[in-house]
Design goal:
The chain is α+β, with helices and mostly antiparallel strands and 324 residues long. The strands form four sheets. Strands 1-8-11 form a three-stranded parallel beta sheet, with no helix packed on it.
Amino acid sequence: MSPKRGRTGRRRRRGPETSTVNQSHARPYIQLMRWMKERGFRDKRLRTAHFPDTGRGLMTTQLLQPGELIISLPESCLLTTSTVLTSYLGKYIHGWRPPVSPLLALCTFLVLERYVGDQSPWKPYLDVLPSAYDCPVYWEEETVNYLPDPVRQKAAEQRSAIQEFYSSALPFFKSLSPLFPEAPENILSYEAVRWAWCTVNTRTVYMKHAHRECFSAEQDVYALAPYLDLLNHNAGVQVEASFNEKNRCYEIRTKVPYKKYEQVFICYSHHDNQRLLLEYGFIAAHNPHQSVYVARDAILQFVSRKDKQLQKKWSLLKENGFLE
């Protein structure tokens, strides 16, 4: 299964820059590579760069043929619920009832590690994460109102879901008071949790973990993958991505060739632009999976209310999923 989260080539206004800029010598990326090397990462096929059409991404340092590895990331570099359970949060998660979700465990860990700053062993990775996201949950309500009805409704539902996610977690956050002199609910504010939620939602790769009793029944399929998560999305490329049980690495192989110094892409899945906007905060130019969502009221504007077959036609549309 291909990686499930990330960013892409976006339609957005840019300045006059027209060339690719190598960013691998920037201090945050030097620190990140040093940190990854300490954890066993040895791959030199990719280099951090800024591209005029997609922004930050990864380019090749050599020719890549179909079937070749793009990247192989050791398990020691992955941030998963196993990471959280072996940390200071482990005993609080094991002792909490009802069990927290894997998503809440990851979000809590991200916020707290970001809060402790230099003391966090994950600081080199946290330093290259976005400080905010382009998802509609970050937009002002006035901006959301410019969206077409179906997208605006989904954006409102997403915002409500994150609010509920946060509100339901407050008792668990308060249980963490022995960890910090400051009230945990101040550290774990809505804004901080929203940032963590978007980090997990936009950047994790799919990696299924066995269910553990300390977690709720929600599937545990998340893995934050430093450096690998800089790969941008392109619907036209094909990759094979999975965790290799033999060498304990998360690997991505390309099914298409790449020239030297060309940007490398992965495909997050066959999503239309509505899904891409809601989940990742971008839309893809020339998206072959683009769909148009039409609200019920928009359809009724062009239908005669006197049509005796209206109810039957409406039922057919609904039964075949055309109103979804």
